[in-house]
Design brief:
By secondary structure, this protein is an alpha/beta fold. About 35% of the residues lie in helices and about 20% in strands. It is built from nine helices and 14 strands. The strands form four sheets. The protein has a five-stranded mixed β-sheet with strand order 3-2-1-4-7, sandwiched between helices. α1 (about 40-60) packs across α2 and α3 (about 115-130) crosses α9 (about 320-325). The longest helix has about 35 residues, at about 235-270.
């Protein structure tokens, strides 16, 4: 029975797994992404990771016939190249991803395929995860950034120039401060990602008067409004946290509302059978989820009122499984 390797190549780590035709991940390994070493060094390290997994599979009597990659950046899925990438991976733009790996692995180019990592994530969820059995699904991930993918009849919609899915980069009325649009990492301003991503929640917390001494990052912001984190505080300590706690709650609610409104608008446009919400913020609990879903459903046109909105189910294996699906026969 033919198996394949699925690869999730991100800005900080690269994970890969041997995937059975059923979608089961039989064995996996993770390495740091050499994000400051350039494209060729990343290809060398990724090829070594894959080669090691192929050897482990062979020892278990499993043959591997292909490699699917979900990679950070805008990926030309036809040419198998990196069209553009952020500074998270230096020298990644312009890398011949498929050709470089196929040469290093002595595989025909037809046995290696690549898409953007969020498309791979969404494909995994559509195949075996929260949207399994749906003819169409919209997945939006809220974490370090905001990304998404629309999967239709088992294939992600990539767009004419392979930029489809950049759902963090359209205007949000929440992404303003004192009438000035908030800067976005893409170079624009007033975008969804500038208010609804994890780092944006932390920036909102500071902007709303929260103290950096009380919360060092977005995780700390959520900790400030966790009742269990404040059990046993005396009155003086509780008062000291009060202003930052109020800022934290406001930042979370604003970010969640912006996220929900954005997804609701996308649902109105795409009319997916199922909506999947993923990423670190989606995993943060009801404090974020409830205002997000409330804002989402406030945005929907009447025929869409009952659309299922669910959390992603596959966790860290989603992109590996989705990437594998690209080449599984």
């Amino acid at each position: 029975m033919t198996h394949v390797i699925g690869v999730d190549l991100g800005g900080t780590k690269t994970a890969a797994g041997v995937v059975a035709p059923s979608g089961d991940v039989l064995m996996s390994e993770t390495i740091p992404t050499l994000n400051r070493a350039g494209g060729e060094a990343i290809l060398d390290a990724t090829a070594a990771l894959i080669t090691g997994l192929v050897a482990r599979a062979a020892d278990a009597g499993i043959s591997v016939s292909g490699v699917g990659i979900g990679s950070a950046g805008v990926i030309d899925a036809v040419a198998g190249s990196v069209v553009s990438a952020t500074d998270a991976i230096h020298g990644w733009a312009g890398t011949a991803l498929v050709a470089g790996l196929s040469a290093r692995l002595s595989l025909p180019a037809s046995a290696v395929r690549a898409v953007n990592d969020v498309h791979a994530h969404a494909l995994g969820e559509a195949w075996l995860g929260a949207a399994a059995g749906s003819s169409s699904s919209l997945m939006v991930a809220f974490g370090t950034g905001v990304g998404g993918s629309f999967v239709l009849n088992g294939a992600p919609v990539l767009g004419h120039r392979f930029v489809g899915g950049h759902v963090g980069h359209f205007a949000s009325p929440f992404a303003y401060s004192d009438g000035v649009p908030l800067p976005c990492v893409c170079g624009g301003s007033g975008h969804v990602e500038a208010i609804a991503s994890g780092p944006a929640v932390y920036e909102s917390y500071l902007r709303f008067g929260g103290s950096a001494l009380e919360a060092l990052d977005t995780r700390g912001v959520f900790g400030l409004v966790d009742p269990e984190a404040h059990d046993g505080l005396d009155g003086e300590a509780d008062a000291r946290f009060g202003g930052s706690r109020a800022a934290a709650l406001r930042a979370i609610e604003v970010g969640a509302a912006a996220a929900g409104q954005a997804v609701g608008g996308l649902i109105n446009i795409l009319d997916p059978e199922t909506v999947v919400i993923s990423g670190g913020l989606a995993d943060a609990g009801e404090l974020w989820w409830k205002p997000m879903e409330f804002a989402l459903r406030q945005e929907l046109l009447a025929p869409l009122a009952s659309v299922p909105v669910v959390r992603a189910a596959l966790g860290n294996t989603a992109a590996i499984v989705g990437a594998a699906k690209l080449v599984l026969k």
